């Protein structure tokens, strides 16, 4: 190797190194550009989506861990002692059950709070009905428990009456079907438990006829909820036979209920021991299929696994997480359990995604000002954004948000 | 088998986290217990030095579990003489904080709320979210346990409460009811003369707690042992664990509850309905606290039929009234509640029975045309149940 060739080789090496460094720099720049371009695209897409579908930003944003308390937004008035709330699948309609005045069910425009409609169980006076808790299925139909009628009334999304679950294994339409040997098209019917048997009117007829009172298994439905996979859960607070009744998703996806529903599982019992409850106000299913019963008068939550095997309790004790009189509840998609504490005058939130429930925070306190509660009774969330709470003695629905 | 969910960190000379399964090593550490370490928490960092952040012992878990269960059971023992959360409090109960605040109360009696009624209606309102005794509608939402053979065992779902309802009764709006909204109340008969009225009761306004003790009581239906400053004793008879809310289970002393505020109406002297000497007290008054078929004065006629079990039938309608028990089913004592309902009634008053404005009369307490003065039955059917005039 000659001495002359060494500088040349050095020059070539340096040149090669420079080229390589330049190449690296260009690759970095390219990568940076691509990242920036991707971010720009995301911003454009999000902006376009916001323009096409203007909604509060929290409802557009994807679900994220929000383990901090929400904040008060505004209240919807025009309700008298509301005790139950539910929201339509698209988040546009808010359903409210009130226990004051005429004990009506009301539909509000969720965003504006504008009253859209009032309705009630057919042919009942205010003294003959007491709607309490509500839930909405995937197609928007509303299920309402009625404490005085001992039944669950089903309405369409606009509040038009559809059917009644009269007993754990009996609907009004299935009873009519069996009595009339098929329900002629256009037949109207209703059942008011204070007025004897079911009444019906055939299409084109002016006469109402009454059937004998069906034989019904006694029950007292109170809490109603529909799981993410469509199962209907009902808490039966009949002291002599209190339990949780589970129906398959075929009930909430059925076109009608002319065929009587059959519970797929019944579990729990009345009492104060393990696996027992006193006036369970709600039963919910989390993403793992576990069941959570809000044990109202024992001030706690009971847990069963997905096979209905009883697991444990939580929520009773002392401190901020202790439940007093838990009432309505809601499980969000992150398995955060929101429990309304009626005499604690707040909402307590637990993270139940793990094996051991973790208390996250409580929000609200006693009062009549914005963000304060006076015997709240129920809660519903839409996505991760809006939270609606029935503030009973303040005669309003409070709207909170993250 | 134990599923270990506590993170275990293993130091390694190699970079990065390598998923490994150390079942045998872990078994040694945990004295041959079979332990499964989920791969995502078992990580190798090279030198295989094991640092266990938290040990796991089944015995410890069991001890903790037993302690928790015993504590939970102790805390949840809330049974009282009248069922539900009204009594049976343990030494370390958390129940006080459910209704009271020691230093930040906003209502009297250290209540967390200014409205006692709102607190009670959280369970006993029309929604029945915490009780079957719906006192707003005067309905017992539950059926009687068929296996309970004590008492009369006749309660069916949605039976009318014996005490009536504050808003509705028997499916209709009330025509008179006691006001329990906490405001000051005028009580007829609260004075020496029967026609007088007192504007204030001992303790201020009237609410649910004026008559009932939410902490439990030795009296029937947790009635206070002191009402309006007057000692009250109401015995409870013939009732087991399951309550009988539509059939009277009153023992002796039920009239004492009403008399605590309406004392001058509490006439127990024989012949007081015709005794001119009592007229100085503001008028004659029907006697109470006597047997329905006690030998009456010659001028008074009482029917032959037991007013509680048979009553009076006019050919189409039968009317009966409840009598106080004397220790056996089928009592015989006439008390205030035989004719009146302490919560409220939907009885209709017409014609001569309508004593209020618009009805032409001036009966004490009647303030509206339809005021029914808490009477249990329409018009004067309560009279017919006993006196049975054809």
Structural overview:
The complex is a heterodimer of chains A (402) and B (390). Chain A has 402 residues and is of the alpha+beta class. Chain A is built from 4 helices and 32 strands. Chain A has helices at residues 5-52, 57-60, 172-180, 249-253, and strands at 71-76, 82-87, 93-98, 105-109, 115-119, 131-136, 142-146, 151-155, 161-167, 170-171, 188-190, 199-201, 209-210, 221-226, 232-236, 243-247, 265-267, 269-270, 276-277, 280-285, 291-295, 300-304, 310-314, 326-331, 336-341, 346-351, 358-363, 365-366, 372-373, 376-382, 386-391, 396-401. With 390 residues, chain B is an alpha+beta fold. Chain B contains 8 helices and 21 strands. In chain B, a hairpin with a 2-residue loop joins strand 10 and strand 11 (172-173). The longest helix of chain B is centred in the first third of the chain and has 18 residues, at 58-75. Residues 1-58 and 64-83 of chain B have low confidence and may be disordered. The chains are: A alpha+beta (402), B alpha+beta (390). Chains A and B meet through loops of A and helix 2, helix 3, helix 4 and strand 11 of B.
Blueprint (SSEs and pairs):
The complex is a heterodimer of chains A (402) and B (390).
Chain A: H1 5-52, H2 57-60, E1 71-76, E2 82-87, E3 93-98, E4 105-109, E5 115-119, E6 131-136, E7 142-146, E8 151-155, E9 161-167, E10 170-171, H3 172-180, E11 188-190, E12 199-201, E13 209-210, E14 221-226, E15 232-236, E16 243-247, H4 249-253, E17 265-267, E18 269-270, E19 276-277, E20 280-285, E21 291-295, E22 300-304, E23 310-314, E24 326-331, E25 336-341, E26 346-351, E27 358-363, E28 365-366, E29 372-373, E30 376-382, E31 386-391, E32 396-401
Parallel strand pairs in A: 18-19, 28-29
Antiparallel strand pairs in A: 1-32, 2-3, 3-4, 4-5, 6-7, 7-8, 8-9, 9-10, 11-12, 12-13, 14-15, 15-16, 16-17, 20-21, 21-22, 22-23, 24-25, 25-26, 26-27, 30-31, 31-32
Chain B: E1 2-3, E2 8-11, E3 18-19, H1 23-29, E4 35-36, E5 42-44, E6 49-52, H2 58-75, H3 96-99, H4 116-124, E7 133-134, E8 139-140, E9 159-160, E10 168-169, E11 172-173, E12 176-177, E13 187-188, E14 197-198, H5 208-211, E15 226-227, E16 230-231, H6 254-259, E17 290-291, E18 312-313, E19 318-319, E20 333-334, H7 336-339, E21 344-345, H8 381-387
Parallel strand pairs in B: 1-4, 2-5
Antiparallel strand pairs in B: 2-6, 3-5, 7-8, 8-9, 10-11, 12-21, 13-14, 15-16, 17-20, 18-19
